[in-house]
Design goal:
Helices cover about 55% and strands about 0% of the residues. It is mainly alpha-helical. Helix 1 crosses helix 2. GO terms for molecular function: hydrolase activity.
């Protein structure tokens, strides 16, 4: 998984809802991959996001 961890209950909620919306028909592995992409984008400063919500 990414080096970034969701820090607040709000970030965890947003991450959970986003994974559900993007990958609800996928396997657990597929859903984990979507979460990894989201967290990786937050971690990479050149992507412009500093939190899961952004």
């Amino acid at each position: 998984m990414s080096n970034y961890d969701a820090q607040t209950a709000d970030e965890i909620d947003v991450l959970t809802r986003t994974v559900w919306g993007e990958a609800r028909g996928e396997s657990e592995e597929g859903q984990a991959a979507v979460a990894h992409v989201i967290l990786n984008r937050v971690k990479k400063s050149h992507m412009g996001s500093k939190t899961v919500k952004q």
